[in-house]
Specification:
The protein is an alpha+beta fold and 424 residues long. The chain has 14 helices and 24 strands.
């Protein structure tokens, strides 16, 4: 098969790494890719947002299958465009991608079909939103309705913080059209977890569990980010929890989407809060998580490509996935200034030394570019260092052993990834 992966981040590097290993894959391309992905696939200079360019490339190069990594082209309808052109693609339609494209849509769906989630209200008027927040009291959660690259959520511990988040979205227009409406919801107390299911619209296959670290600083402090690290498996996601999530959240959502005329195919990522009353949905994403994808795929024993094809073709029923017992842990190296104004253009050295120091580690590129022989930072989250080991403790030691050899003074990373799972 001739396969194209769309995207340029660490998630797409992990996808390319896994797909390149498949005996079904004869040729692998990535649009636009990055310097790390170039070791696995031929990178083509087409932006993930260039839907016309992607379709034309697929026609010209006779691409058999497209795997769409990021959420924005999914919400924009890339899968619809490809399928209409006779090109098979993995990922939800634009109508189904509304599960991530509009938090308000997802909350309304949950309310209509009895899917457990926090109580909420939707607002376009800042005054009304502030009045509701004051009536509810803090802590309270304020979310931009649309896609905001992981930065549109504020878990406000004070009313002042909540009102500031409302003003940012509805008055200061910080998130553009994505923040023209906000969802304000009750704060849920418990432990967060990431839950993934592969689905063909009818059958849902749970993937391995994972947890990520959203806050920028050690001890889960500072603003939310797209994710500063992750690990798999997540000890808090027991078989009992998995069974409950599939029965109360994932399967009811798929049934609801089918009933609404928006059948969902692809990978469904449920951000969960494990409360005393049971698991509740925080939000849905319509793609592999980033950086969770980077710890899930190294643990996957099965060939990824046939699984993605089965989801697209509607034949997941009877399909099975096998997982390694080993643990994986990812540490994100970010550019100074992230998540607000990351510093671009600084040079990164020592990746070969890092690999030599921890041979079982994987280094996925998330935001890099080449300048001749030099490797430069070109984004907020720049590198994903993934350690593997028999236990999470060993995986963590592997990841940090590699990071210590990387020479990048303008970068930073959290030093406590995995602390929840390892605190006991």
């Amino acid at each position: 098969m001739r396969v194209l992966v769309v995207g340029s981040g660490g998630r797409e590097h992990a996808l390319c790494w896994a797909i390149a290993a498949s005996p079904l894959c004869d040729a692998l391309y990535c649009a636009p890719g990055n310097p790390g992905i170039a070791a696995e696939a031929e990178c083509v200079p087409i932006a993930a947002s260039d839907l016309d360019g992607i379709v034309e490339f697929c026609r010209r190069e006779q691409i058999d299958f497209v795997v769409v990594g990021p959420e924005a082209p999914l919400v924009a309808g890339l899968v619809d465009r490809l399928e209409a052109s006779g090109i098979a693609a993995f990922g939800p339609s634009a109508a189904a991608a509304a599960l991530e494209g509009s938090k308000g849509f997802t909350k309304d769906l949950c309310a209509k079909y009895g899917i457990p989630t926090a109580a909420y209200r939707r607002f376009t008027d800042a005054g009304a939103a502030k009045a509701y927040a004051r009536a509810q009291g803090a802590p309270i959660v304020v979310k931009a309705d649309g896609l905001a690259a992981g930065k549109g959520v504020t878990v406000a511990t004070s009313l002042e913080e909540a009102e500031s988040a409302i003003e940012d979205a509805l008055i200061a227009n910080r998130f553009g059209a994505a923040g023209a409406e906000v969802v304000i919801e009750d704060f849920l107390d418990g432990e967060e977890a990431s839950f993934f299911a592969l689905t063909d619209g009818k059958t849902a296959l749970p993937l391995a569990s994972a947890q990520d670290h959203k806050r920028v600083g050690d001890g889960d402090t500072g603003p939310n980010t797209g994710g500063m690290g992750a690990y798999s498996p997540a000890p808090c996601v027991t078989l009992e929890i998995e069974t409950a999530v599939m029965a109360r959240i994932i399967r009811p959502t798929l049934a609801a989407m089918a009933k609404e005329g928006r059948p969902y195919k692809g990978v469904l990522y449920a951000g969960l809060m494990l409360t005393k009353a049971g698991p509740q949905l925080i939000e849905y994403n319509v793609r592999f998580g980033d950086p969770e994808c980077q710890v899930l795929l190294p643990r996957l024993k099965s060939d990824l490509l046939p699984a993605l094809l089965a989801a697209r073709d509607g034949v997941l029923d009877g399909f099975d996935l096998r997982w390694r017992d080993e643990a994986a842990l990812c540490v994100v190296m970010a550019a100074q200034g992230y998540p607000d104004n990351p510093l671009r253009g600084s040079e990164i050295k020592g990746l070969d030394r890092a690999q030599a120091a921890a041979p079982s580690a994987l280094i996925f590129h998330a935001g890099t570019k080449r300048d001749g022989e030099r490797l430069l930072a070109d984004g907020g989250r720049v590198l994903n260092i993934v350690g593997a080991g028999a236990t999470l403790k060993e995986a963590r030691a592997c990841a940090y052993a590699a990071i210590e050899r990387i020479d990048w003074p303008q970068g930073f990373y959290r030093r406590d990834i995995g602390w929840r799972a390892l605190k006991t």
